[in-house]
Amino acid sequence: MSVREIDMLMEGKDELARSAIAQRVGHRLSTEGVDEAERRGAEALAKLLANDAVERVRSELSKAIRHAKYLPRDIALKIAHDVDSVACPFLEVTEVFSESDWHQIVLTISRTAMVAVARRASMPESLAVTLAELGDLTVAETLVENKAAPMTGLVCGTLINRFETDVSFLEKLARREDLVIEIVVRLTSKVSAAAREKLLRAYNMADHTEVIGAEAEVGSLLAVVRETPLTGMTALVRSLRREGKLTDLLILNAADENLVEFVAAALSDRVGIRVEQVRGVLLHAAHRNVIDLLAKAGIPAALHENFWNALADARRKEQGQPR
Fold this sequence. Notes:
The two termini are 46 Å apart. It contains 22 helices and no strands. The longest helix has 20 residues, at 208-227. The protein folds into three domains: 1-96; 97-206, no CATH class; 208-318, no CATH class. The protein has 323 residues and is mostly helical. Helix content is 69%, strand content 0%.
């Protein structure tokens, strides 16, 4: 469809008529089997309607094309950054953006639009992490209440770190039924007694006192690790091993806090490899090599990805990259 043909089609059309055209355009772009000429004509009309001066017209277009599988990127981004009434219905449903696109979009949209993104039924971990890092409390609560949002160790850890003083929020997080065990353990020391009992029962952690005590002990030991100079790290690790306190949970929490020197010393002690070599693997080696190291150190396979994710910040810092 040429520019002249589009101008003729739109000439003299009032708001109601343009809204109806927007609905038809959306239907064309969302329907399989439309021939190339029709699709290109619909895209040209969509581009024009995305710039319509009337919000209602743009809103009708947004709703109509939100299920389109193939949509020019410039049109999709234009709608994503429109006013909330236009952007939100589109952002909550569309599948046209890549994970990289989503990261950039979340950086530049309104809080209300971010809430719409947090309600999505399709959400990769990277998007959930970005929302957890950048969203306010309302966005975080929406994310936690969205059953489709992956509550991985990295997502939950980010949320806990940001909202650790908001007990109400943490108890909403504790009601999720898909938390990883280390997150359950972290939450036990932060929520009310009633919520803690319910949480531990839900995850079949029978010895509540032992779990809570283990978390408290890890917290105390991490405080010691933070105060230990680099020259004393190996001696600290050996002492903890002799006392039976060099646990997987302690090492994982240390990784979460970017205490890389302690993690390297702890794993070195377990596998009998020089600390410098272990540190190099943790900060520079490929995913497979890091996982192999963890396996040799006796870290359970269920925790391998949590360790890898926990090391992400340290690896970025080592490479001089922004968080």
